[in-house]
């Protein structure tokens, strides 16, 4: 059994160097919800140093709320917002002699696209404008993954071991108690459940291809270390995703 382990980085949370050795894919903030070109370049170099997949992590232009406030924009504007962010990171990646492998929307954009097909399609169009060879990461079983597949790009269904789920397979709102799992041991146990049992959507079970750890979690590096140990003990190979 194999799984990719990704983390949202370049958000100036101070954990990037400690986390990078444990992950296989890095989602790098593209300057709208967090980061800037200098931070992007430093994070790209760090990922390249550790042999970690490099991905773009575009979000709403909303630093005040860290991109976690839902926004209502036209499909055309959403496409351009996403495209601009990926383009900036893609250029930096090229200059650093690295390769851009994937795109994963951030925060509210990610959650909105999971259920808003118009937004999801706009994101897919933006990704394809950069390269149809990029992998789109979305909530496993969501409309974003469906939009990517219909749009002809490879998708990777994602699970969140450090987050609690609603009964319908969506993520529990951070405003609710228990939405964020704090204990590294519980995070590791939840990761194994996601890999082995999948996520239940009604009568449909969806399995994950990648797991996300949030880089802004104060215990992110500890979560990553303990999770990797748990994966090894349970015969799970942690390996970066690649083109099929």
Helix count, DSSP H or I runs of 4 or more residues: 8
- Average per-residue pLDDT, rounded, comes to 94
Tell me, what is the CATH class? Alpha Beta
What is the architecture at the second tier of CATH?
Alpha-Beta Barrel
Can you walk me through this structure?
With 244 residues, the chain is an alpha/beta fold. The protein has a single domain (2-238), classed as Glycoside hydrolase/deacetylase (TIM Barrel, Alpha-Beta Barrel). The protein contains eight helices and ten strands. It has helices spanning 16-19, 37-49, 75-95, 107-115, 117-130, 143-150, 184-197, 220-233, and strands at 2-9, 25-29, 53-57, 100-103, 135-139, 155-159, 199-201, 204-206, 210-214, 237-238. The protein has a seven-stranded parallel β-barrel, surrounded by six helices. Strands 7-8 form a two-stranded antiparallel sheet. Strand 1 (2-9), helix 1 (16-19) and strand 2 (25-29) form a beta-alpha-beta unit. Helix 3 runs parallel beside helix 5, helix 4 packs across helix 5 (117-130) and helix 5 packs across helix 6. It is globular, with a radius of gyration of 16 Å. It starts with a strand and ends in a 6-residue tail after the last strand. The mean pLDDT is 94.
